[in-house]
Design goal:
Layout: E1 2-5, E2 8-11, H1 22-26, E3 29-37, E4 40-41, H2 44-57, H3 66-79, E5 85-92, E6 109-116, H4 121-126, E7 128-134, H5 149-160, E8 165-170, E9 173-177, E10 181-186, E11 189-192, H6 203-215, E12 218-220, H7 226-230, E13 234-239, E14 243-250, E15 253-254, H8 262-273
Parallel strand pairs: 7-8, 7-14, 11-12
Antiparallel strand pairs: 1-2, 1-6, 3-4, 3-5, 5-6, 8-9, 10-11, 10-13, 13-14, 14-15
The structure holds 4'-deoxy-4'-aminopyridoxal-5'-phosphate (PMP).
Amino acid sequence: EWILHNDEFIQEDKLTISKEDRGYQFGDGIYEVIRVYGGDLYTAKEHIDRFYDSAEKVKIVVPYTKDVFHKLMYDLVEKNEINNGQVYVQITRGSYVRQHQFPADSTPVVVGYTKTVERPLELMRNGVRAKFIEDMRWLRCDIKSLNLLGNVMAKQEAHESGCFEAVLHRSEMITEGSSSNMYGIKENVLYTHPATNLILDGITRRTILELCAELGINVQQTPMTKDQALQMDEFFMSSTTAEIIPLIDIDGSKIGDGTRGALTEKLQKAFEARLNLGVQI
Ligand code: PMP
């Protein structure tokens, strides 16, 4: 398997990372996950733009142009012969003797690798259970930061309760999932948290909002309370790897009739139509 290290492709066993890499010590870096369908990078431009935006927000300069970066991602997928899968890519501020403030002169370190991942078709059809968990993260959730401890703790707690995802809330207001965006549907209106500093502006979320416009589903970008969420007709989550997965139960309360909702299914099918993979779901 080939790994991207800065601007070189190397074999995995040749990769070395410094003990003082700031990603390793501080989570001082950002990342992206780009989906690969049928050997092609999906919504590559959006992911690459967000990678550069996240880097800029934490004052890391990506050491090449977006075009060069795009080609590196493309070549990595091709070299590893990935058909359905993903690219994971991160950039850290590099390594330096441990100190909190930015080093005067460190060189950012990029690492990228690929993985084969199939579409979670069963989960997409049958839905999953979820759990409300207090959102304890910082106030810059718009940055795709390597600091994921808040997300990791929430996902673990959900997992220990036999749930697939955590529905995070700040006080009564639902923000997003531990690694996904969240949506409720009530009487043909889709509700989701606005793309503020409290959530990641998901690329899948943007596609879903476009599909709602095409399908005539009204959208209200206002946060739902936990009580409102439990009263929704349908509920679902979205992410690059999960696409659109129905939440059929939150905290032991059934959503709707406890099966995938009609509009959720419609959105899944419209999403799938954009992938040019034929009908699978
Ligand atoms: N929110 C969080 C916290 C996430 O980790 C993710 C997954 N990257 C998302 C939302 C969904 O974003 P996207 O659709 O771009 O994968």
